[in-house]
């Protein structure tokens, strides 16, 4: 899943990038409110972490702009402001969650995973597709009760597919959610990863629909 981090404290932004990437997220980081508006309105993200105190344009203004342009991605506000009125303003602007500095990185990760899971229409912490099971809080896969060993990119791809199980996902959609802004989006590499995943989860679980994309199916 792809996340936008908007934070002007560069050391904290670097820490969040490291923690999120280490937990399987694809991460873009921006440090300025104007750049955040552009990225949020022109790139595809599954969620965002948004600081309020930004240069160029404050976080509430950024969030207002995203929502006015129909951007529905879940947003966690991150701020040093802990007053009730600030929280009310954040939620009224369209925030989905609110975390006050200082915080634990694990908390941000768990909140993001929960928001993304619910935005995908899954109420349970465990997402299942037949014998394939994904623990959205631990970020682990099991197949028929046994842990799956996956590379980082295999894991990212399978996470997106299981969040969207039984729906056809195009190559373009996968690329938009699996590559950061500064990475080349290579459809050929997606084919390679899909082939490797089929060997690990069963070829019948991931269907290819010619000219349309891929679908993760319930093959118990």
Briefly characterize the structure:
The chain has 220 residues and is an alpha/beta fold. Helix content is 42%, strand content 21%.
SSE map:
Elements: E1 2-6, H1 10-22, E2 26-30, H2 33-42, E3 47-51, H3 59-68, E4 75-79, H4 84-93, E5 97-100, H5 105-119, E6 126-129, E7 132-135, E8 140-143, E9 146-147, H6 152-163, H7 171-178, H8 187-201, E10 206-209, E11 213-216
Parallel strand pairs: 1-2, 1-3, 3-4, 4-5
Antiparallel strand pairs: 6-7, 7-8, 8-9, 10-11
Helix pairs in contact: 2-3, 6-8
Largest sheet: 5 strands, parallel
Secondary-structure element string: EHEHEHEHEHEEEEHHHEE
Helix count?
8
The low-confidence runs, each spanning 5 or more residues with pLDDT under 50, are none
Q: List how many beta strands DSSP finds.
A: 11
Termini gap: 25 Å
Describe the structure.
The protein has about 220 residues and is α/β, with parallel strands linked by helices. The model has no long low-confidence stretch (mean pLDDT about 90). The protein is globular and about 50 Å long. The strands form three sheets. It has a five-stranded parallel sheet with strand order 2-1-3-4-5, sandwiched between helices. It contains eight helices and eleven strands. Helix content is about 40%, strand content about 20%.
């Amino acid at each position: 899943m792809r996340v936008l981090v908007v934070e002007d404290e560069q050391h904290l932004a670097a820490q969040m990038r490291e923690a999120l990437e280490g937990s399987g997220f694809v991460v873009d980081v921006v440090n300025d409110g104007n750049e955040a508006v552009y990225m949020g309105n022109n790139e595809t993200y599954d969620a965002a972490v948004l600081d309020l105190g930004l240069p160029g344009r404050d976080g509430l203004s950024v969030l207002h702009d995203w929502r006015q342009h129909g951007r529905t991605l879940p947003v966690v506000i991150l701020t040093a402001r802990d007053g009730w009125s600030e929280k009310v303003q954040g939620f009224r602007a369209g925030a989905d969650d609110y975390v006050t500095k200082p915080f634990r990185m694990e908390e941000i990760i768990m909140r993001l995973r929960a928001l993304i899971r619910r935005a995908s229409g899954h109420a349970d912490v465990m997402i299942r597709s037949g014998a394939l099971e994904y623990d959205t809080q631990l970020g682990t896969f099991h197949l028929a009760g046994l842990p799956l060993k996956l590379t980082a990119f295999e894991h990212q791809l399978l996470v997106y597919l299981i969040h969207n199980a039984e729906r056809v996902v195009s190559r373009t959609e996968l690329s938009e959610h699996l590559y950061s802004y500064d990475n080349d989006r290579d459809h050929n590499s997606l084919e390679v990863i899909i082939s490797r995943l089929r060997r690990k989860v069963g070829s019948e679980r991931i269907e290819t629909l010619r000219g349309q994309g891929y679908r993760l199916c319930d093959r118990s």
